[in-house]
Structures are given as structure tokens and as C-alpha cells.
Specification:
single chain; about 375 residues; alpha+beta; Jelly Rolls; 2 domains; 11-stranded antiparallel beta sheet; about 15% helix; about 35% strand; globular; binds manganese (II) ion
Length: about 375
Amino acid sequence: MTDTTERQVPQPIRDGQGATDTGPRSLAVDLENPDVLVPPEQDAGTMPNLKFPFSQAHMRLDAGGWAREVTQREMPIATTLAGVNMRLKPGGIRELHWHLQSEWAYVLEGSCRISAVDQEGRNFLEDVSAGDLWFFPQGIPHHIQALDKGVEFLLVFNDGNFSENNTFQVTDWFNHTPPSVLAKNFGVSEADFAAIPQSELYMFNGAVPPPLESDRIVSPTGNVPSSFKHSLDSQTPLRTSGGNVRIVDSTNFAASTTTSAALVEIDPGAIRELHWHPNNDEWQYYISGKGRMGVFANSGHNRTYDFGPGDVGYVPFAMGHYIENTGDAPLRMLEMFKAPRFEDVSLCQWMALTPGELVQHHLKVNDRVMDSLRREKQPIFRP
Ligand code: MN
Ligand code: MN
């Protein structure tokens, strides 16, 4: 082996500990997870798995596109939220449906038309494109249809046990209702329902819809009181020394009462500071760039995980963590919570606002650290 080859084939060796891996091994997986193959020496103890790539999730292929999900079944620790990544071809329709959970969505690419009708007959119809969000409350019926360039998006549901394969589909219900009942319900004859599809449509082909305004129907009870659409990317980000963040929760997107999020961009070499969340678990989706997350679980337990585009990460309630950009491009990721408000506690801010001599009794840090703490009284990721 030449020097160059040895450098390209990482080995589970750190400071004389460990030994070469003679195989069988998956070099591609090892290269993507350098902190799993060779953990930092501070990592210790047994931890739950906190990473699952969408690339390892089952792909459901259908006429209108594809969908895959990362739920509690893929990542058992992830009990609060579940995610679906879906692509619809131009004109492709995600069938009219509803479900037990609320649905929060972020458009990754392209654009689509979405609709909903609430419990008071108030309706909603909008077009959304890359960088926009939508939110449908639990039990409210809705649809998604790609516009002329197709669409790809991330859906996040407020229950780790959600499955995109267990939603209430309109065709499924029509199919399982006797035609005599349908005839009575709609005041027409049984024969009028002869062409109902024999199985659910789920994701199917459709014609690209007409301009938004020509598709609108005026409801006697008006529009939904809080729009189900929000433009996250057009929100002015909070800039910090190491990146920027856009926080969206029920305070600036009133409809989203069950789900809060932060779209974080970390500069190359920078970190999302050491922190934790005092309200709930964190479900993460990595959009672009490369990074690693260290998670501290108390009692000497700590583990480091590597992330790239399309990966899902998870941080159980209250565990301390940081995310470091290990690549040479910005790291973009979503932090999501089953909570009406985004909340975090900064380690720096806690130390800065605690009497200095008390901090020194614990950490034995020098004046340089204490001076730095005093400059950090402002929270780093908060308006
Ligand atoms: Mn849905
Ligand atoms: Mn966090």
C-alpha cells in the first residue's frame, strides 16, 4: 500500500488504540461516518441510534412520483415526530386525504398547489415554492399537486408512529361505501358512481392546474383564519458570527400550533453552539453540506454522529449537543420540535449570567474564558 492509499482507507485506530479493519467492510459508509469509525476519545457509553439516512428508507414508487419515510420504526428513539420525503412529477397529485396527525412541510425544490377545508367550511388554496412552508392541523382534509416543474418536499408529522401508508384517502372511502349510501348522501343515482377507481390513487398523474385565481372557490364562511402557508426563506435571518438562523413557530406562523422549527445555516468551520432544548426532543433534517453532532446524555454518556444531505438526526429531550460544519460549504439543516414555541438554552449564556466565582469553582477556567463569557450575554440564536 502506498501512503496515499492508506490515507484514503480510514482505519479504526486512534492514538495506538484499535487495529486495522481487514474486512468485510463498507468503505463508502465508513468514509461518510468518520466519527463513528474513529470516535472522538471523549465518546463513551451506550447510546440510542440518533441517525437515519432517507437513502436507507423504503421508496414507495407510484404513477405520480415517490415517497419515503423515516419514523419511529426506522429510528426507535424518534417518538415525537416522523418525516416523509416526497417527489411529485409535473401535475402529479397527492390524493385528497386526511390523517390523525398535524402536517408541517418545507418545500425543497419546485412548486405545488395545496388546498384544505376546515371544520367550519372555511377553505384554503395557495401555491408554494422552494423555501415555503405549509401546515395542516390534525384531521383537516387536504391535497398537494405539483405545478409545471414538479416538486420535492419534506413533511413532518407530530407523532413518531405516523405512516404515510395509513392515511384516510378519499377514493378508499368512496370504494368502501355502498353505492346506495353514496346515492342518498349526494342526492344522485347509484350509476353516477360507476367510474370510481377500484383502489386508492395515492400519488397519481394529473394535468398541471390552471392559474391560482381561476381555481379559487369562495366559501360562505370565508378563508381559514390563519393561513396554512408561510414563506420561511423570505424571513430575515438572525445573523451570528458563525452563520444564520430563521426561527418559525406559532409566534410568527400562527397556524402552526403543534410544530416549531429553525432553519440553521452554519458557515464552514463554525459550530451551532453547545445548547439543549428545555421543551422537547429535536428532529433534524440535513439539507446540504456536511457536519457532525456531539450529543451528551449525562452520566458520562456521549456520542458523535456524522450527517450529510438527506439524513435525519434526533436529539432526545434535554440532551446537550452541538453541530460542527466539517465541510467546505455552508451546512443547512432544519431543527424541528413537537412544541408551539422554539426554545433553547445556551451553555455560554448560562455560564455568562451565573456569578463568575461560582463558574470558576466548577470549571477552573482562566480570565480569558471569563472575559469571553461576559461578552456572550446575548443569546446566540434568539431574536
Ligand atoms: Mn397529508
Ligand atoms: Mn438543538
